[in-house]
Automatic annotation (TrEMBL):
Pfam families: ABC_tran
InterPro entries according to UniProt: ABC_transporter-like_ATP-bd, P-loop_NTPase
UniProt-recorded Gene Ontology molecular function terms: ATP binding; ATP hydrolysis activity
Protein name, as recorded: ABC transporter domain-containing protein
SUPFAM superfamilies for the chain: P-loop containing nucleoside triphosphate hydrolases
Organism (species): Handroanthus impetiginosus
Organism phylogeny: Eukaryota, Viridiplantae, Streptophyta, Embryophyta, Tracheophyta
Domain spans labelled ABC transporter: 18-71
Length: 96
């Protein structure tokens, strides 16, 4: 728990960012994940992609009903951070 939050009276040791999340993606279909600011979109994608490894993660992640194996999942799925998507849209002169 961040010290700033403890200063406001939060007693928990862990900050729960995602709770009760479920969903389904169709194979071979580009999917957009949208939501308001601070809704947990990046946190969810970081957990699914394996980028969020230093945090405490509980629960189960299944792919087609089978437990997710990161080494296999990394070959069949991926996501691009927003900054990279915006950078690719920039014109050549504005990059340098």
């Amino acid at each position: 728990m961040p010290q700033e939050m403890k200063a406001y009276g939060f007693q928990e040791d862990r900050l729960e960012l995602l709770k009760g999340i479920s969903g389904a993606f169709r194979p071979g279909v580009l999917t957009a994940l949208m939501g308001v600011t601070v809704a947990g979109k990046t946190t969810l994608m970081d957990v699914l992609s394996g980028r969020k490894m230093s945090s405490y993660i509980s629960g189960t992640i299944t792919i087609s009903g089978y437990p997710k194996k990161q080494e296999t999942f990394a070959h069949i799925a991926g996501y691009s951070l927003r900054i990279f998507a915006v950078f690719c849209l920039a014109s050549l002169p504005s990059r340098f």
